[in-house]
């Protein structure tokens, strides 16, 4: 059941997604950048397949709305949002590979290694990851050099072996080693949390906001990142394959422990309410200017797909 | 047969390799950086396996010597050299995967996916690529923000879909499509050339050298990058497996066209001499201060493994 006041939020989410997709389509077209020798057709087709797939663009939304909160340059924010989405999509392409989670479908469409082949999927992921740093550092991202560098460093650390990639490594190990609760929390803070945290922090970096605001937005991102994961685990426990457009119950089948599976549905729902309250409290200083970020926190905790 | 005047060069190459390896060992140890939540053991083991493998560290050497030519900060140059080597090693780990070139051995040791598993090899490569941008952008790389950004952008463009990753994609296609001579040259300029070009250019960027010097070093890099590839093709045609420590004659077996195979050994040797002369001519303005780079050009063209 959708509460009436989330309807304008969803319209806003869609409008933001369209903005980001228009830019991604342009960044992934056939025009060469200076220093590029050629853009191999099949590689760019595979990259587009992995990116222009109708995603909700939640991470870009968080970049754009946190940037708007601090009145950052909107064009630059859009490029940062697109770079982040390239990193998110690379991670999905590689996670779907046979050697990793071995998924054939994503959003009801064949995954990149099914639509193309494994080599193309590996290279498309590698390319999207590398291209994200190109997008940030390019002169077209009109920001002071110090801020662009902070964005590069933040993205590298959120996505790298001490962040998202490390979380995926721990997740694969978890199938064998059954981590304890602290281990599951750490794994998820890395695998899904780090990039969502960065998405929120990036808005403050873009605007050159005070260190205190940057830290506050990062904490907001951590809270909704954890909520995102708990909501996902809950869906894995309760939803059917049709709603999700991908295989469900898969975590349990793979023997992967989740907090939701460990503590049950009621506990998880209570945790989600607590995280949303915490996220909302962090936005207190910004008054109603932060309403869209507040709604994003609620949307993430309550989403049904 | 080794000419006597290359002996001091090889000693210098080894000394530089030791410097870079000491830093790489430190960068890949278990200490967390700010913002990192954990360093998964198996992942970091796989990363170290892929990096600390006794490579010649030719690309780092080029960074360090081109940086020294322009009197850049030596500590910063070492970090840039290490970042570049992480990108080179990521590319080897992914190229060796079963879905790509399917190699079990590298330098006589099991490749990362053989020593660990495919998922670990994919993630170790992803992690090294991401970590390279972390190393460049980190405050420990003590350079003006503008130069660090130029280094990030240059690396992203050299390694990305319009550079190295794109070249690997074209190389895989080449097994099916038999590119013409122009196609082979383009493929190799991307696959191996772009990163070697960047290695030489990076020294000029590090030092904040004039645009003209930067362009000159980049062209020097392009010339020796092409020489590197021709020498490699020649070895593939002539050397035996023992000398190389890996399977040879493989390109021909896979139906991959190379310039050396197309034109023969004598033509290739003549081309190599021409490229070395061209590379040496580009260094003319720097006099004997560029002697080590000159020797590097000769070494690359004449190497026997």
UniProtKB/TrEMBL annotation, chains A, B:
Q: Name one GO biological process term.
A: terpenoid biosynthetic process
A single cellular component GO annotation: cytoplasm
According to its UniProt record, which cofactors does this protein need?
A: Mg(2+)
Give the family from UniProt.
Belongs to the FPP/GGPP synthase family.
Tell me which domain of life the UniProt entry assigns to the organism this sequence originates from. Bacteria
Q: Which PANTHER family match?
A: FARNESYL DIPHOSPHATE SYNTHASE
NCBIfam families hit by this protein: FPPsyn
The membrane spanning regions, by residue number, are none
* Name listed for the protein in its UniProt record: Probable farnesyl diphosphate synthase
**Keywords recorded for this protein, A-Z:** Isoprene biosynthesis, Magnesium, Metal-binding, Transferase
Species the sequence originates in: Pseudaminobacter soli
- One GO MF term attached to the UniProt entry: metal ion binding
Q: InterPro entries from the xrefs?
A: Isoprenoid_synthase_dom_sf, Polyprenyl_synt, Polyprenyl_synt_CS, Prenyl_diphosphate_synthase
Q: What Pfam families does the record point to?
A: polyprenyl_synt
């Amino acid at each position: 059941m959708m509460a009436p006041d989330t309807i304008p939020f969803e319209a806003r989410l869609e409008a933001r997604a369209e903005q980001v997709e228009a830019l991604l389509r342009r960044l992934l077209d056939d025009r060469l950048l200076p220093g590029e020798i050629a853009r191999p057709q099949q590689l760019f087709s595979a990259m587009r397949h992995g990116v222009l797939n109708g995603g909700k663009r939640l991470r870009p939304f968080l970049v754009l709305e946190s940037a708007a909160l601090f009145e950052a340059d909107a064009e630059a924010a859009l490029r940062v949002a697109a770079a982040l989405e390239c990193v998110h999509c690379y991670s999905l392409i590689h996670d779907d590979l046979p050697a990793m989670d071995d998924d054939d479908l994503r959003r009801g469409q064949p995954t990149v290694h099914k639509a193309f082949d494994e080599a193309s999927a590996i290279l498309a992921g590698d390319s999207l990851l590398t291209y994200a740093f190109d997008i940030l550092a390019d002169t077209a991202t009109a920001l002071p050099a110090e801020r662009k560098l902070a964005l590069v460093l933040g993205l590298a650390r959120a996505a790298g072996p001490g962040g998202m990639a490390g979380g995926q490594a721990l997740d694969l190990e978890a199938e064998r080693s059954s981590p304890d609760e602290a281990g599951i929390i750490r794994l998820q803070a890395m695998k899904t949390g780090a990039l969502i945290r960065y998405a929120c922090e990036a808005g403050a970096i873009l605007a050159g906001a005070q260190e205190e605001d940057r830290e506050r937005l990062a904490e907001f991102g951590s809270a909704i990142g954890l909520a995102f994961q708990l909501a996902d685990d809950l869906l894995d426990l309760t939803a059917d394959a049709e709603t999700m457009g991908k295989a469900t119950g898969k975590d349990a089948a793979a023997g992967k422990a989740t907090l939701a599976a460990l503590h049950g549905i009621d506990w998880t729902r209570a945790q989600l309410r607590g995280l949303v309250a915490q996220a909302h409290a962090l936005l207190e200083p910004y008054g109603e200017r932060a309403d869209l970020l507040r709604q994003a926190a609620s949307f993430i905790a309550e989403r049904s797909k």
